[in-house]
Each structure stands twice: as C-alpha cells, then as structure tokens.
Predict the structure of UDP-N-acetylglucosamine 1-carboxyvinyltransferase.
Amino acid sequence: MAKLLTIQGGKPLQGEVHVRGAKNLVPKSMVASLLGSEPSELHNVPEIKDVDIVTNLLTIHGVKVDRDAASGVMTLDPRETYSAEHSAIDTHAGDSRIPILFCGPLMHKNGEAFIPDLGGCRIGDRPINYHLEVLRNFGAVVDKRATGIHISAPKGLRGAKLELPFPSVGATEQVLLTAVLAEGITELKNSAVEPEIHDLIAILQQMGAIITVYTDRTIRIEGVSRLSGFRHRSIPDRNETASWASAALVTEGDIYVRGAAQRDLTAFLNTYRKIGGEFEVDEEGMRFWHAGEPLKPLVLETDVHPGFMTDWQQPMVVALTQANGVSIVHETVYENRFGFTQALTRMGASIQLHRECLGSNPCRFGQRNFLHSAVISGPSKLTGADIDIPDLRGGFSHLIAALAAKGTSNVTGIEIISRGYEYFIDKIAGLGADISISER
Ligand code: EPU
C-alpha cells in the first residue's frame, strides 16, 4: 500500500541530522568493485534505495555483498562473478540509471552485458547516447532490444580518444569504469570533474588503475591488465547537506548536519550567504541557520562543477519564494527541471517559467522549446496542499515547502525520496516537524 505523509507546517526545523556517503558516489563505487580480482570494502554507505538496487544487481551477477546498515560498512567480493539471467536483470527495469554503468565492468568480466530499461528521476529525456557512443569507441557492439540493451566486446575493449559533447557525470564514469582495464591508452576530453568523479578515481587508483586528470577537463587512463580491491570511505553527500541547509532557511530553523564537509560546497555556500543564510563549520559537520533578517533575492545559474549544482537548485528555489524581491534561476544542466514548481505555485508561490536563457550565459537549451528559466517573486505566504512527489530533488523541495507552509499538506509518492535521502522521515520528525504517516 502507498504511504501518505501528512504535514502540519509552520514549525522551524531545529536539531541535528546525520549525513553519510554520497548517493552519487556509493552505488558507482559498488560497480567499480566488479572490476577487482579481490574483495573491496566500502565505508560510510547510506541506507538508500539506489544502494539496494546495485546490491541486488551485483548479487545476481555472483558478487557477494555484505552490509552492516548501522556502521555503514559494506564488503563486496567479486571473485565468482558470472552472467546473470536476463529475466533476473529485467526485474530492475525502470528502477535507476546506475545499471548503465555495469557495461564496461561486465564486458571485462564476462565478455557481455545486458542492461535493463533505465529509470531515475523524470527531469528531462535523460538519453544515454553519450554512453553508447563511448562504448562503441572502445570496440563494444551495441544491440538495442525491446527489453533493454545487449552489449558485447567480441574483439576485447581497446583504449580510445574520446570527447564528450557535454561534461556528463555518467558518461565520464562510463569511460573510467571501461578504460581502466581496456588495452592501451584512453584520453577523454570535456569530462565531468565533480567531486564524486574524483572520489571514484581515488578508488580506481587504489585498485591499481593509472589515471591522470589535467586542468582542462581532460582525463588520461592507461589501461592495466588486472585490478585488486579497494578500501575506501565515501565522501559525504553534499547534495543532502545542501538540502538540509535550505530546509533550515525555508523553515527559519537551525540544523546541524553531522558528517557534512565544507570543501565540495563552495558555490552553494556563497549563494547561501548571499541570500541571507548563516553557517559555521567544525570537525564533525556544519551548522546552518536563518539569520533572522529578511532573505535577499538573487540571480542564479546552475552549472557543472565547480558551478552551482543542478541538484541544489530545487530546495534553493523554495528559499527564494521567501526572499524579499525578484530572483532569477537559469537551469543549464537539464532541460526540464522546473516541473516541481507547479506544486509550489499551488501552495502560493509566485514563479513564472520562461523558454529564454535568463542568465548571463546562453545555454544549449536556449533556442529550443524548454521552460528552463524561472522568475520567482517573493516573499510569498505558502499554504498546505495535496502533493504527489514527482522526483527526488523536486520532492524534497515540496517537503520543505510543506514544512514551512501554513496548514496541512498531504504528500504521496514519498518512496521516491528514499532513493536519495536515508531515514528522511525520522530525520524531519527528529527536527521537530509535526508529521504523521498512514497507508492509503
Ligand atoms: N546527457 C545526454 N546524453 C547522455 C548522458 C547525459 O544528453 O548520454 C545529458 C543529460 O540529459 C543532461 C546532461 O547531459 O542534460 C548531464 O547529465 P549527466 O550525465 O551529467 O547526469 P547523470 O550522470 O545522469 C548525475 C547524477 C544526477 C545529477 C547529474 C549532474 C547520479 C546517479 N545522478 O546524473 O543526480 O543531477 O549527474 O550532476 O549520479 C540527483 O541526485 O537527483 C540527480 C539527478
């Protein structure tokens, strides 16, 4: 039965939450373990659905995965991997986008891979053309079928000279996970350089890979014939940290995020300070709070790292509905990442969407028909509403809007949020929110 979350809004969120390993790194490091000839050990693993999905996928390919939820320690033993039944793989169709990253490791291990239809958040088309293009360049043969993709490497995988049309995180990971055991040298231009990519490189380097990152977004990988295991502690989830920081701002609260690290949040923290949020840092985490003064509007553009990340945009838009004046947000990474604003508008926010690039830099969506710029006028009084969660980050932004709003909100689709936020119901309850859960 589906769960219904009922929120009585209007209480500031106050207290402490604990953030563990990054959703956008941990499942990928689990995939990396497949490349090893020895077991790996991963620390700081959160209890999120993407970790469950990758655990299941690894298990059906013969990897022994042991995990202690409380300590966050996971061991992965890939010494007896085999090709899984297509029907077993297919049960994961539509669950997540991570399965596409199994292509390289499974081809190295078993000579072939079958990838089910992908899932993930509905925030645009989310094509996989870059992934398939780079794999073909390594020598893979791609056979698209109705149920998924069969991919094989009859002549083995060979290093290649590659360039991405856009610095895609997933496609960069695809190249790394394929090139490390490919024959010869791979050079990838216009690669993503997100902190999660650097953490994945650290893992692969521990396993024996030879990877050089240049300052111009070029990554060079010298293929090796064998990789061992790794022992690694994931970087903390900077997107979850930014979400709680915005929640403190929106609800006029004060939240200490244990486990948070300042380093990979530079662009977020600059914006947080400009809008009027306060933060402080200690050895164990970071504290975020509303300074008491009216929030200030601003002009914001999402970008690839080191810019303001697209996953920080949605909770920040909720904060901007409370700022005193007109703000502009230009989304340049995904063409369709403002769908969540419809619910905010129903709650009383004033948000207009535009097809034009309303930022300083025209982006690749500019001359096309996508509502990818938002004009937000504040401050707006938010009132409770019935909400069906559309995607992970948009869904979290709905939650914090409902927590700040006057009156009752009934929220469905909350399972989507557990894809990326562990124990989020317990966390908001622990911060003093007035909530209840029922089945419907
Ligand atoms: N793109 C293509 N073709 C491809 C791949 C990507 O056109 O083959 C486009 C996408 O449509 C998008 C842009 O390139 O417009 C960037 O996509 P990217 O490949 O960088 O995204 P991703 O790897 O699919 C990861 C995160 C996202 C995060 C983005 C950007 C994971 C599992 N997901 O997605 O996280 O927004 O990078 O940093 O790591 C989230 O956490 O809620 C989330 C969506």
Notes: The two ends are 6 Å apart (CA to CA).
